[in-house]
Amino acid sequence: MSDRIFNNLGWFVAGLVIGGVFGVLYAPETGEDTRKKIVQTSKIAKNELVKKVDELKKVIGEILKTEEEIILEEEK
Asked: Contact 23/30 with Cβ under 8 angstroms?
């Protein structure tokens, strides 16, 4: 049974290696270009996220201010 497991594991590892080789050989761009695109896309996503968080802070601030005003009016 353990020979069968090692045989199957060997074929699995061989498949990973062959797939990796073909992936590198047939990649549409170089690794450097791919990394640059990943960095660029990450920066864009980060900037968009920061904008959305700032907008959310403003909305939450307005809601809190409105709620505070309502509470103060009710206390009068």
From this structure: no
